[in-house]
Structures are given as C-alpha cells and as structure tokens.
Write a structure and sequence with these properties.
By secondary structure, this protein is mainly α. The protein has a domain at 258-376. The protein is built from 24 helices and four strands. Helix 3 runs antiparallel to helix 17 (377-395).
C-alpha cells in the first residue's frame, strides 16, 4: 500500500518561501528609492544599485527574522505562560459553561429560537472585533483572545476555525473597512494630503457590507459544522480542545481561599492607587476624543464584581481577573496609546495574580508559566522564521524595484483600471509586508504621485490602499500574527488555507466591487 502523501509542515512552507525570495534576488534588478527623514519615498528618486544576490543569507534569515519580530515573539511566549496558569484554574471552562447555560434560556423566546442564540453570539462578538479593527487597528491583540474563543466555539458545537473567525477574521474584516484606524487610514490620508478621516460616510458603507458578507459566510460554515462536526477540516486537530474541555468538567465551584482574598485586595489597592493618581482620562476613538474618569470607574466596578465573584468561587473570581485584564487592555489602547509592551506586561501581571488567587507558591507559578511558554514555543519559532522572508527581500534590494515597476505599469490607464491595479498590487504586497503602517509609509507616496499624474481621486487611492490591506493578510504565511493565531489555536496551516482561500477570494472580489464607485459615482469627500 502506497504511503499517504503528507502536506508540508508550516515551517517547511515558510522556509520554501524564503528560498523563493532568495532566488528572486538573483534575477530581479536591485534598486532603491531615496527617502526623507520620515522614511517617506522621494518622488522620482528610484535608481538601480549593485545586485545583492542572497546566498548563505538564506540560513541567517531565521536569526534575522527573530531580531526583526521580537515584540510578537515575546508576546506569544508571555501569553502562552499566562494562559497556561489560567487554564490550570479551569476558570475559562467555568465561564464558558455558565455563559452557554444562561444563553440557552433565551431559546424559550420565539425570536431567539428562530434566529438561533449561537448565531447571535457569533454575530455580536464578530461585530465587536470588527469595530475594534476598524477604529484602532486591532491585529496582534487578537492573539490573546484565541485561547478564549476557541474553547467557546468548541463548547457551542463548532470548531477552532469558528473560534478564530470570531476574533481574528472579524478584526481583519474591520481592518479592511477601516472607519477611523489611525495606523493605516490616518497615515495614508496624511501622506496623500487629505483631511484626517475624511470620506467616513462611504467607508461606513464599505464596513457594513463587508461585515454582512463576512459574518454571513462564517455563520453558514458554522451551521454546517454544527450539523456534522466531522465535516470540519480541523476535526482531528480539534481533539486537543475537545479532550481539554471534557477533562475540565469536574468541580468548577471551588470555594475561594485566603489566597483569593489576598489577590482581590492586591488588585483593588493597585486599581484605587492609579484611579487617584489619574482621575481623568483622555480616550481617543478615531478622531473623537472623550474626557472620562475611566480608571476610577473601572476600579469601582472591580471592587463590586471582584467581591461578588470571590465569594462565589475561586474560578469565577479568576474569570473576573481575566475580564478586567481585557477592560484595562482596551482603556490602555484607547487612552494611553499602549503597544504590545504594555499589553504583555498586563498579561504577565494577570498570570502572577491568578497564580496567587489559586494559592500557588512562587515556584509552582514559575513552573506553570514555563510549561505554558514551552507549549507555545512552536508559534514563536515560526513567527521568527516568517520574518526572514522580508529580511531576504530587503537585503536583496528588490522591494523598491517591485514598487517602481508597479508604478510604471499604471501610466496611461483609465481610472477604473488604475484603481483596480492599485488594489491588486496592495493585496499582493501583503504577502511581503504585513504591517499596515509600514506599507502606508512605503507605497502611499508612489500611489499619491500616480493619482496626481492621471487625475485620480486621492481619496479613492487611499480607499484602495486600506481595503487591499485587510483581506490577504488573513491567509499569507508571512504574517506573524496569522501564524501565531494558528499555532495557538492548533490549526495546521494547510487546513487553514483550505478553509480560508474561498472566503478570502470572495472578500477580495467584494472589496474590488466596493472600490469601483469611488471613481465612477459622486461621493462625499471623494
């Protein structure tokens, strides 16, 4: 009997892409644009340079990829350790079980029974993350939510793909709709010389349409998996999550010990101290600014919720710690411009305080954290490997050559053809550069100049940029965030690709159709 052919491991796929990138540096002419002090391309400055063919650098790309992506790598390791401690308490299982039990009660009402409580849950969660992606560019942060929503999806009778869709895919949809995202839309409009966040009316239409289609696609898939779980492409891979959940269905109501009360007062004291030190907070949502006493509000809420949950059980108190960790994450991002550094510190603190609440000794907390970091190490390694692709292309001096060739190909085309080519180019560029901010700084000066030369609306150009920046990031193996999400969810890349490519193709075509009115129909600010 012939041996069954195995699909390449994710590491093999990424290394093969690095090899192709290295080969390309032998044939694509090396070139560079001059850049100003803000790293913006200087118009008309492209020039060829000596060929920088990559040879032995193929084997140093792994190391350089780690150096290039340390934030995501460390973030993943800290998350792995933190959630291993959290999972030890069975708090997530307690929360999922309680949530689903309460949600089933809604089925006695005809509306919820007809629509489906689970459908409403998936829709609301996806809309929330889509909004976060559209307003402040949530991307890397979704990694932290995978460990929450995958067990939830499994418990609801779905699979890990549905769990990943609830946070990661939803944020990607919002990223493409891009209502007020300062990291892509804001930078792109500033480079194009447009008023900040102008054109919001039609962008809201785009965001609404892509959410209807995207969420509808996920709900249709979820219903198919619910009907026959074995039809899921990750049914075998999800055995880990099913086993983990079934093992957790024991005693979920352990009484809180003295350690839990100590953890409660530690958090409360810290929360009150920060509330007194910073009584008023400036929250930025897009271009809107709000002055609110958020830290005092959150401290007051924790005082009440924490007290109620610590009296109920140790697991529910730890669940409240997770809840307020997420609340502080949102406040930090919107009010204090937090990056992965602060978010990682927040989850690290959550890990320690959770261990204390469980009554674990310092040594036991350390061992649990290290075990979790080991368990997630493969995700960190593959993120570093994926970063090596960009390293090879940058060191080979071929990225600017590709940009120059694309800009020349747009000359002499009509508006629809030009905007379509811009969109196609941007969608393909995601396979090389996944950072929206970096792409905005890199290619918007070129797209701006092309639009000026042919009389194309700059607002349409910016729209082509942000729609094109949203969808293909969700499938390219060069995306450190995607690879991190899949590794944490334990979804093999080939299984993800099999599921995702029809969805991504649909969304890319939809994005192109939504782009055409920007050059054919009179729109506000266009």
């Amino acid at each position: 009997m012939a041996k069954k052919r195995q699909f390449p491991h994710t590491y093999v796929i990424v290394f093969a892409v690095i090899l192709l990138a290295a080969i390309s540096t032998w044939f694509i002419p090396a070139g560079e644009f001059a850049r100003d002090e803000n790293k913006m391309i200087v118009t008309g400055s492209y020039h060829q340079v000596d060929q920088q063919a990559q040879t032995w650098q193929l084997f140093s790309a792994f190391y350089k990829g780690f150096v290039r992506s340390p934030k995501i790598i460390v973030f993943i390791l800290i998350l792995g350790g933190a959630f291993w401690i959290l999972n030890e308490s069975k708090a997530i299982d307690a929360g999922v079980g309680s949530f689903l039990a309460k949600s089933k009660r809604l089925e006695r009402y005809m509306f919820f029974r007809k629509v489906g409580v689970n459908n409403i849950i998936i829709t609301l969660v996806m809309l929330m993350f889509s909004f976060f992606g559209a307003v402040f560019g949530m991307s890397e942060e979704t990694i932290a939510f995978v460990i929450i929503f995958v067990p939830l999806a499994i418990s609801m009778g779905y699979d890990s793909i549905v769990g990943v869709c609830m946070c990661f895919i939803a944020a990607g949809i919002g990223f493409a709709g891009c209502l007020l995202n300062p990291f892509t839309l804001g930078i792109a409009q500033e480079i194009a010389g447009l008023p900040l966040f102008s054109g919001i009316e039609y962008r809201f239409v785009i965001w609404t349409v892509v959410n209807i289609v995207g969420i509808g696609y996920v709900l249709r898939y979820a219903a198919r998996v619910k009907k026959n779980p074995t039809k899921s492409p990750v049914y075998e891979s999800d055995a880990y999550w099913r086993e983990h959940h079934s093992q957790a269905e024991g005693d979920l109501n352990q009484s809180a010990s003295r350690s839990s009360w100590i953890a409660y007062f530690m958090i409360l004291t810290t929360a009150i101290a920060y509330a007194v030190a910073i009584p008023m907070n400036t929250l930025k949502v897009g271009k809107s600014i709000f002055e609110l006493p958020m830290l005092p509000i959150v401290a007051g809420l924790f005082a009440v919720v924490g007290f109620i949950t610590v009296r109920k059980s140790m697991q529910y108190f730890i669940l409240s710690i997770l809840l307020f960790t997420i609340v502080y994450l949102m406040v930090g991002v919107m009010g204090f411009d937090w990056s992965l550094l602060e978010i990682a510190a927040l989850f690290f603190a959550m890990a320690i305080i959770t261990g204390i609440a469980m009554g674990k000794s310092p040594n036991e907390i350390t061992k649990l954290f290290v075990t979790g970091a080991k368990d997630i190490m493969s995700a960190a390694l593959v993120v570093g490997l994926a970063g090596g692709i960009i390293v090879i292309l940058e060191d080979g001096k071929v990225i600017d050559t590709l940009l120059y060739a694309i800009s020349n190909s747009m000359q002499g085309l009509n508006n629809v053809a030009t905007i379509s080519l811009m969109y196609t180019f941007q969608s393909g560029l995601n396979a090389i550069i996944t950072s929206g901010t970096a792409k905005a700084a890199l290619i918007m000066p070129i797209l701006r100049d092309v639009s000026e030369m042919i009389g194309l609306s700059k607002q349409a150009t910016v729209t082509a940029f942000h729609i094109g920046d949203g969808f293909t990031n969700l499938i390219t193996p060069t995306s450190g965030v995607l690879i991190g999400v899949l590794e944490i969810a334990r979804i093999p890349f080939n299984k993800w690709f099999k599921w995702a490519w029809p969805f991504i193709l649909l969304m890319v075509i939809l994005g192109w159709l939504l782009l055409i009115p920007t050059v054919t129909v009179p729109l506000t600010d266009f």
